[in-house]
């Protein structure tokens, strides 16, 4: 697992967090609420930064449902704006620690015949950096990404 230093509250200007059911509906709701929150924070709908951040958020929440689902367990979304850079940090935590995504350094390119496996390539292309680390305080993992606001 790649480690990521904790972000102290002094470096966060805005934050939103919520638990969602580990279902496709929960992932869609997380994406919609995240998009709304970004707009309220001054990263407006229809702009390139907004669309890119929402794509990354959507991919991470969809992966939490697809690869991190544990019956009866939710996934957790934490969305923050980091000061002074204004970068947006997305953290999605699920309860499935044994199903790890590849690290950024090990991300394989899918073959032409693959019908999946392109989501993390999208995250890697749109995020300034991303990674994964063990879930603090319980089983599972957190996959995170940081995106530039513009």
Automatic annotation (TrEMBL):
<keyword id="KW-0067">ATP-binding</keyword>
<dbReference type="InterPro" id="IPR036890">
    <property type="entry name" value="HATPase_C_sf"/>
</dbReference>
<dbReference type="GO" id="GO:0005524">
    <property type="term" value="F:ATP binding"/>
</dbReference>
<keyword id="KW-0418">Kinase</keyword>
<feature type="domain" description="Histidine kinase/HSP90-like ATPase">
    <location>
        <begin position="21"/>
        <end position="144"/>
    </location>
</feature>
<dbReference type="Pfam" id="PF13581">
    <property type="entry name" value="HATPase_c_2"/>
</dbReference>
<keyword id="KW-0547">Nucleotide-binding</keyword>
<feature type="region of interest" description="Disordered">
    <location>
        <begin position="92"/>
        <end position="118"/>
    </location>
</feature>
<dbReference type="InterPro" id="IPR003594">
    <property type="entry name" value="HATPase_dom"/>
</dbReference>
<dbReference type="InterPro" id="IPR050267">
    <property type="entry name" value="Anti-sigma-factor_SerPK"/>
</dbReference>
<keyword id="KW-0723">Serine/threonine-protein kinase</keyword>
<protein>
    <submittedName>
        <fullName>ATP-binding protein</fullName>
    </submittedName>
</protein>
<keyword id="KW-0808">Transferase</keyword>
